[in-house]
Design brief:
By secondary structure, this protein is of the alpha/beta class. It is 42% helix and 13% strand. It contains 11 helices and 7 strands. Strands 1-3-2-4-5-6-7 form a 7-stranded mixed sheet, with helices on both faces. β4, α4 and β5 form a beta-alpha-beta unit.
Length: 280
């Protein structure tokens, strides 16, 4: 397994001018964000230098951080333009609002073609962005994202979304995130995730979580005009309900943060998916 810190240090050596940094988890949140994107150069060339090339945009979920994609950035960033997105913490922090912010930032940065790769709620943001059918979108990859859930699970999560509008929101979110941990998530990793959750503004955490649980994923998947990859780990995605053209894989035993704890398998799936969309 490639550890995130080791991968980030390797990334610095391979790409000394990269703006993707291993940020300290304490105090990394800021009250206002003008742009949520961090950019990476591939093989020493700016992303935009390769006209028409596909850039890969990674989107973390609740209590996520760009560093969690360090293994993917290292694996793919040597040959592709890579962008990591930070969570939206101000303004409209709903799934739809975060999707609009993401697309606006990509347009502002002049990203012509891109694939969105989202983990958990970040995958729902990717779906919401894809529903807008933005120019330049080439594909979407969902990493253990809560789409097409069985009815009892969907009802339970929507009930939780109702309680997130009450004073119980903070404790419930902490319990919910804690319940996503598995054997692969060692104590230091759990502490970092829960610390980031504690640092996330309450309104942002409530809005992102509740709209993730209530977003119509079936309609979203049916309306996405580009190829989709689904990586299922711990969330019971009903893969039999996926649109016929959707590619999917199971990665069991690595927990919810599958891209961290089963990086090699996820990297292979992403590389194969990207190579079909944009052979290099």
């Amino acid at each position: 397994m490639i550890r995130a810190r080791e991968a980030a240090e390797r990334l610095r050596r391979l790409h000394p001018r990269s703006r993707v940094l291993l940020l300290p988890h304490q105090g990394h949140l800021v009250p206002e964000q003008s742009n949520c994107l961090d950019r990476l150069e591939a093989r020493g060339r700016p992303r935009a230098a390769a006209s028409g090339a596909v850039s890969v945009v990674f989107l973390p979920g609740l209590a996520g951080h760009p560093d969690e994609f360090a293994a993917q950035v290292t694996h793919l960033g040597a040959v592709r333009g890579v962008i990591t997105s930070r969570p939206v913490l101000d303004g409209d922090t709903s799934v739809a609002g975060a999707a609009r912010r993401l697309l606006a930032d990509l347009r502002r940065d002049g990203v012509d073609r891109f694939v969105l790769v989202g983990h958990s709620a970040g995958g729902m943001i990717a779906l919401a962005a894809a529903q807008q059918q933005p120019e330049g979108l080439a594909g979407v990859a969902l990493l253990d994202t809560p789409v097409l859930l069985p009815s009892p699970v969907r009802v339970a999560l929507r009930l939780l979304a109702v309680f997130l509008r009450t004073p119980l929101a903070g404790p419930l979110l902490r319990l919910f995130v804690g319940a996503t941990f598995g054997d692969s998530d060692l104590a230091p990793f759990r502490r970092e995730v829960l610390q980031r959750l504690a640092e996330t503004p309450a309104h942002a955490a409530r809005s992102l979580t509740s709209t993730t649980f209530t977003h119509d994923s079936a309609t979203a998947l049916a309306s996405v005009p580009v190829p989709v990859l689904v990586v299922r780990a711990t969330i019971p995605v009903r893969v039999d309900q996926l649109p016929l053209a959707t590619r999917w894989i199971d990665v069991r035993g690595a927990g919810h943060w599958v891209h961290v704890h089963a990086a090699d398998r996820v990297n292979t799936a992403l590389r194969d998916f990207l190579d079909e969309l944009d052979p290099r």
